[in-house]
Amino acid sequence: MDTKIVLSTLETSPLFAVLSTEERILLQENAVINAYSKHQVLYKPGQAANRVYFLLKGIVKIAVHAEKKDIIKYVVREGNFFGESCLTGDAHRRDFAYAMDEFVQVLEMDATVVLTVMRNNFAFAQSLLHFLGERLRYTENQLENVVLKDSKSRIMEFLHQMGIEQGRRVGFETLVKHNMTHQDIADLTGTSRQMVTAVLNQLKRSNVLYFNRKKILFRDLSTLSMAV
């Protein structure tokens, strides 16, 4: 384990900022750093849920199997927790975690130790509860979109949110670098790969955006919701 990386993470991440020196050391002593390659499984259903994960580098997708394919629940990006169900009572995993990048680095903490720190540090417990609440709201919003909006609207909203959250301004345009396939976007929006491809091609023809396998360049994010 690279102690310097762990200490740096625990000292600089806003989530851990409320910890005392002793609590950081306790977490560090009961944590490991593991690296995963693209498509490698971090955990799967039925495995013991005894670790909480903090993503240091790369992207991870959390998914469940349904009808011989993966249904993506959400995507985890650097600086975020996942695998937190063990903090709310799950003894075994109910979903999969896959590495989406060529190199994924994860800080894996003992769930029992994290729970101990939560019990002794109300501010830390409150930070984690806020995080869990945000994830729950995201899941509820995804469900509402599936029920209330058509496929095209869901894809458009997903792209707009991607631009806001992951985009980097390049002049008047917004660049998003990503590793998501059209099928990944379809799984996240509850649509089909064919529909995602059709919507992206339509937006490209309308000069709303340009895309290839690794990036999406939005001409003007503010016009996306008004696109064809």
Contiguous uncertain segments of 5+ residues: none
Please give the count of helices: 7
> Judging by the overall fold, what is the CATH architecture of the largest domain?
Sandwich
CATH homology-level superfamily of the largest domain: Jelly Rolls
The CATH topology of the largest domain, please?
A: Jelly Rolls
| Fraction of residues in H or I helices | 40-55%
Main β sheet profile = 4 strands, antiparallel
User: How much β-strand is present in the residues?
Assistant: 25-35%
How far the N terminus sits from the C terminus, by CA atoms, comes to 51 Å
H/E element string? HHEEEEEEEEHHHEEHHEE
The CATH first-level class of the largest domain comes to Mainly Beta
Strand order of the largest sheet: 1-8-3-6
What is the CA-atom radius of gyration, in angstroms?
A: 19 Å
Return the structural class: alpha+beta
Mean pLDDT: 88
Global geometry: globular
Q: How many domains comprise the coordinates? A: 2
* Strand runs, count: 12
Structure description:
This protein has seven helices and twelve strands. The chain is globular, with a radius of gyration of 19 Å. The protein is 41% helix and 27% strand. The mean pLDDT is 88. 29% of the residues are buried. It is of the alpha+beta class and 228 residues long. The strands form three sheets. The protein has a four-stranded antiparallel β-sheet with strand order 1-8-3-6. It has helices at residues 3-12, 21-29, 111-120, 122-148, 151-166, 182-189, 193-205, and strands at residues 31-36, 41-43, 51-57, 59-66, 69-77, 81-82, 96-99, 104-110, 168-170, 173-177, 209-211, 215-218. The longest helix has 27 residues, at 122-148. Helix 3 crosses helix 4 (122-148), helix 5 crosses helix 6 (182-189) and helix 6 packs across helix 7 (193-205). It folds into two domains: 3-147, Jelly Rolls, CATH 2.60.120.10; 149-226, Jelly Rolls (Sandwich).
